[in-house]
Structures are given as structure tokens and as C-alpha cells.
Amino acid sequence: METSRLILRPFESSDAEAAFAWFGDPIVMRFTPTGPDRSLDQTKARLTNYQEHQTTHGFSKWMILDRRLGCAIGDSGLLELREYGWIDLGFRLVQPYWGKGLATEAACAWVHAAFHDLHLDRLTAFVHPENYPSIRILGKLGFHFERRDTVMGMNSILFSMLTNDARITSGSLAPPSTQA
Questions:
Q1: How far apart are CA 14 and CA 139, in angstroms?
Q2: How does residue 180 score in pLDDT terms, banded at 50, 70 and 90?
Q3: Domain extent listing, the chain
Q4: Which residues neighbour 44 within 8 Å (Cβ) at sequence distance 6 or greater?
Q5: Would the pTM count as exceeding 0.85?
Q6: Does the structure show a pLDDT above 60 at 143?
């Protein structure tokens, strides 16, 4: 998938070192239930799980590349959280790319893909209550507060979006180009 400033693509095994830049960063990962990866091997295992998820479901977390520079800047995508019965939207970027609207752009591309390409009925996203930037992004995209809950052992706010909500969102935020 491509947007005006980003390229989103499935992870490859060779991406582990670049991805460890954010998966191993305690600040980037502070609102993630598992916390930062403590080694490159942990990041390799994470990417293997994402690749298996991609093969099984046709979607997963994908690498985000800066379109202009071609460098890896984060990840975004959808994961089936079977134990909760939902498809979860997630996004994270390396710190130098925070505050530029890029997480919103990547998440918008996934919302569009979820409802228009994958034909999902519902998306969810869970966020730590102190992760204010992610809460703002979900609000911009049209997600609605559902409830407070403990998700994967983390105190969380659960947001959701239905297909009808996505039609509103796709009108206010430009959908991605469909190049893959």
C-alpha cells in the first residue's frame, strides 16, 4: 500500500535490524503490553509471527517506509486477537517521525483496506489511557470509545469502528493509493 508520504509493505526477514530500532526502544514501546524487545532475536521472532499471521489471514503488521527516503520508520497494521474475538489496528513510529501526521496516514490506509479491500465489519484498537497521541489519532479516524478493559494484561481503553463509520472516515481522510 502507498500513501502520499508512506509505503506500507509486509515485513521480510531482512527487516529485523531496522525494526529493532523501534521494537527495542523503551520510549516507543512504553504503552505496549509486552514492552520493548530486549534483543534482536526477539524482534526476529516478532517478525516471524507477523509473517505467519500474514500468510494465514492476508493481513498483519507491516513495515512503514518513508516514501521519499526509503527508510524504515515504523509499523502499522491489523492483527486478529483471537482470544478477544476482534481485529486490532495498531501503529507505531520511531521517535523522529512523531508529530508529523504519519501515524494517522498509515492508520487511515489500514482502515480503508480493512473495510474496502478485506470487507471487515468491525475494527478495534486498544490504547493505554496515557497514550494521548494514539487516542487523538483514533478519534480523527472516527473510532468510538467502547469501554475500559484489561487487554493483554494492560489497563486499556478499547475503541471500535464499524463499516458505516468507515464511510464517514474515508470521506474526510484521503484513502491510500492501491499500489502494493
A1: 34
A2: very low
A3: 6-172
A4: 13, 16
A5: yes
A6: yes
